[in-house]
Amino acid sequence: MSDNAPGGVAPGALREHQSIRLPSDRIEALREWAEEGTALTAAARVRDPDGRTALVKTSWSDGWVLPGGAVEPSELPATAAAREVREETGLTARVADPVVVFEQSYVDAERDAVAFEAEYVVFAARAEGRIPDAAGLGVSPDEIRAARWFEAVPENLHDGDLLRAYLSGEDH
Protein backbone atom coordinates (compact mmCIF):
# COMPACT_ATOMS: atom_id res chain seq x y z
CA MET A 1 0.00 0.00 0.00
CA SER A 2 1.42 3.42 -0.89
CA ASP A 3 1.87 6.25 1.58
CA ASN A 4 -1.02 8.10 -0.05
CA ALA A 5 -3.48 5.19 -0.04
CA PRO A 6 -6.05 5.16 2.79
CA GLY A 7 -4.58 3.27 5.71
CA GLY A 8 -1.06 3.68 4.30
CA VAL A 9 -0.16 6.94 6.03
CA ALA A 10 1.81 6.53 9.25
CA PRO A 11 0.66 2.97 9.96
CA GLY A 12 1.91 3.10 13.57
CA ALA A 13 0.25 6.44 14.44
CA LEU A 14 -2.77 6.88 16.65
CA ARG A 15 -5.90 6.79 14.48
CA GLU A 16 -9.37 8.23 14.95
CA HIS A 17 -12.45 8.27 12.75
CA GLN A 18 -14.15 11.50 11.68
CA SER A 19 -17.42 11.86 9.80
CA ILE A 20 -17.80 15.09 7.84
CA ARG A 21 -21.30 16.02 6.64
CA LEU A 22 -21.30 18.48 3.76
CA PRO A 23 -23.87 19.75 1.28
CA SER A 24 -23.81 18.04 -2.14
CA ASP A 25 -22.14 21.00 -3.85
CA ARG A 26 -19.19 20.89 -1.39
CA ILE A 27 -18.92 17.11 -1.82
CA GLU A 28 -18.76 17.56 -5.60
CA ALA A 29 -16.11 20.29 -5.24
CA LEU A 30 -13.90 17.81 -3.34
CA ARG A 31 -14.64 14.71 -5.43
CA GLU A 32 -11.71 15.12 -7.86
CA TRP A 33 -9.26 15.42 -4.93
CA ALA A 34 -10.77 12.32 -3.33
CA GLU A 35 -11.11 10.12 -6.40
CA GLU A 36 -8.34 11.25 -8.75
CA GLY A 37 -6.01 12.98 -6.30
CA THR A 38 -4.53 11.74 -3.06
CA ALA A 39 -7.59 11.95 -0.76
CA LEU A 40 -5.03 13.02 1.81
CA THR A 41 -4.57 16.19 3.85
CA ALA A 42 -1.46 16.97 5.90
CA ALA A 43 -1.21 19.55 8.66
CA ALA A 44 1.26 20.45 11.37
CA ARG A 45 0.96 21.24 15.05
CA VAL A 46 3.77 23.80 14.95
CA ARG A 47 5.27 24.79 18.29
CA ASP A 48 8.04 27.28 19.02
CA PRO A 49 10.73 27.02 21.76
CA ASP A 50 8.36 28.77 24.19
CA GLY A 51 5.64 26.15 23.64
CA ARG A 52 3.35 28.44 21.65
CA THR A 53 1.31 26.95 18.78
CA ALA A 54 0.94 28.52 15.32
CA LEU A 55 -2.62 28.62 13.99
CA VAL A 56 -4.30 30.27 11.00
CA LYS A 57 -7.74 31.51 9.99
CA THR A 58 -8.63 30.63 6.42
CA SER A 59 -11.34 31.80 4.07
CA TRP A 60 -13.20 28.49 4.61
CA SER A 61 -12.84 27.97 8.39
CA ASP A 62 -15.15 29.00 11.21
CA GLY A 63 -12.25 29.50 13.59
CA TRP A 64 -8.51 28.91 13.98
CA VAL A 65 -7.03 25.85 12.22
CA LEU A 66 -3.73 24.07 11.94
CA PRO A 67 -1.68 25.10 8.92
CA GLY A 68 -2.21 22.38 6.36
CA GLY A 69 -3.79 21.32 3.11
CA ALA A 70 -4.03 18.76 0.34
CA VAL A 71 -1.11 16.46 -0.35
CA GLU A 72 -0.14 16.60 -4.02
CA PRO A 73 0.34 13.40 -6.06
CA SER A 74 3.84 11.96 -5.47
CA GLU A 75 4.40 14.35 -2.53
CA LEU A 76 5.19 12.83 0.87
CA PRO A 77 2.72 13.87 3.59
CA ALA A 78 5.47 15.33 5.83
CA THR A 79 6.78 17.38 2.88
CA ALA A 80 3.25 18.64 2.21
CA ALA A 81 2.84 19.64 5.87
CA ALA A 82 6.11 21.65 5.76
CA ARG A 83 5.06 23.30 2.47
CA GLU A 84 1.66 24.25 3.86
CA VAL A 85 3.22 25.70 7.04
CA ARG A 86 5.52 27.86 4.90
CA GLU A 87 2.67 29.01 2.62
CA GLU A 88 0.21 29.74 5.44
CA THR A 89 2.48 31.11 8.20
CA GLY A 90 5.75 32.07 6.52
CA LEU A 91 7.57 29.78 8.97
CA THR A 92 10.11 27.10 8.08
CA ALA A 93 9.07 24.09 10.15
CA ARG A 94 11.03 21.01 11.09
CA VAL A 95 8.37 18.31 10.71
CA ALA A 96 8.64 15.29 13.01
CA ASP A 97 6.42 12.26 13.66
CA PRO A 98 2.67 12.09 13.12
CA VAL A 99 0.57 12.98 16.16
CA VAL A 100 -2.66 11.45 14.83
CA VAL A 101 -4.29 10.29 11.60
CA PHE A 102 -8.00 10.98 11.16
CA GLU A 103 -9.74 8.47 8.90
CA GLN A 104 -12.45 10.62 7.36
CA SER A 105 -15.80 9.67 5.87
CA TYR A 106 -17.21 12.49 3.76
CA VAL A 107 -21.00 12.25 3.94
CA ASP A 108 -23.28 13.89 1.39
CA ALA A 109 -25.79 15.49 3.78
CA GLU A 110 -28.56 15.68 1.19
CA ARG A 111 -28.27 12.00 0.25
CA ASP A 112 -27.27 10.88 3.78
CA ALA A 113 -24.63 8.63 2.25
CA VAL A 114 -20.83 8.35 2.38
CA ALA A 115 -19.49 9.89 -0.83
CA PHE A 116 -15.81 9.01 -0.28
CA GLU A 117 -13.13 8.29 2.30
CA ALA A 118 -9.98 10.32 2.99
CA GLU A 119 -7.24 10.75 5.58
CA TYR A 120 -6.01 13.78 7.52
CA VAL A 121 -2.59 13.41 9.17
CA VAL A 122 -1.35 15.86 11.79
CA PHE A 123 2.42 16.03 12.32
CA ALA A 124 4.35 17.45 15.26
CA ALA A 125 6.60 20.29 14.08
CA ARG A 126 8.98 22.95 15.42
CA ALA A 127 9.57 26.46 14.13
CA GLU A 128 10.44 29.86 15.46
CA GLY A 129 10.22 33.41 14.34
CA ARG A 130 7.74 36.12 13.55
CA ILE A 131 4.59 35.30 11.59
CA PRO A 132 4.07 38.00 8.93
CA ASP A 133 0.87 39.90 8.25
CA ALA A 134 -1.79 37.70 6.63
CA ALA A 135 -1.76 39.79 3.43
CA GLY A 136 1.51 38.10 2.45
CA LEU A 137 0.44 34.54 3.27
CA GLY A 138 -1.29 31.77 1.34
CA VAL A 139 -1.11 30.94 -2.34
CA SER A 140 -4.01 33.17 -3.35
CA PRO A 141 -5.28 36.54 -2.07
CA ASP A 142 -7.61 36.31 0.94
CA GLU A 143 -6.91 32.59 1.46
CA ILE A 144 -5.36 33.31 4.89
CA ARG A 145 -7.32 35.85 6.95
CA ALA A 146 -4.99 35.70 9.98
CA ALA A 147 -2.03 33.76 11.36
CA ARG A 148 -0.39 33.95 14.77
CA TRP A 149 1.21 32.22 17.72
CA PHE A 150 -1.02 31.13 20.63
CA GLU A 151 0.04 30.55 24.24
CA ALA A 152 -3.05 28.35 24.81
CA VAL A 153 -5.54 26.64 22.52
CA PRO A 154 -8.20 29.21 21.56
CA GLU A 155 -11.89 28.59 22.22
CA ASN A 156 -12.82 29.20 18.57
CA LEU A 157 -10.78 26.28 17.21
CA HIS A 158 -12.26 24.77 14.02
CA ASP A 159 -12.91 21.06 14.72
CA GLY A 160 -12.07 21.85 18.34
CA ASP A 161 -13.79 18.77 19.76
CA LEU A 162 -11.62 16.62 17.52
CA LEU A 163 -8.29 18.47 17.71
CA ARG A 164 -8.17 20.07 21.18
CA ALA A 165 -6.60 17.05 22.92
CA TYR A 166 -3.83 16.88 20.29
CA LEU A 167 -3.02 20.58 20.57
CA SER A 168 -2.96 20.86 24.34
CA GLY A 169 -0.95 17.67 24.91
CA GLU A 170 2.80 17.32 25.10
CA ASP A 171 4.91 16.63 22.03
CA HIS A 172 4.98 12.98 21.02
Automatic annotation (TrEMBL):
Query: Which SUPFAM superfamilies does this entry report, sorted A to Z?
Result: Nudix
The UniProt entry, under Gene3D superfamilies, shows: Nucleoside Triphosphate Pyrophosphohydrolase
Q: Does the keyword Magnesium apply?
A: yes
- Organism of origin: Halorubrum distributum JCM 10247
What this protein needs as a cofactor is: Mg(2+)
Keywords per UniProt: Hydrolase, Magnesium
Name of the protein in question:
NUDIX hydrolase
GO molecular-function terms, A-Z: hydrolase activity
Among PROSITE patterns, the record links this protein to: NUDIX, NUDIX_BOX
Question: What Pfam families would the database entry show?
Answer: NUDIX
| Superkingdom of origin | Archaea
Annotated Nudix hydrolase domain ranges read: 37-172
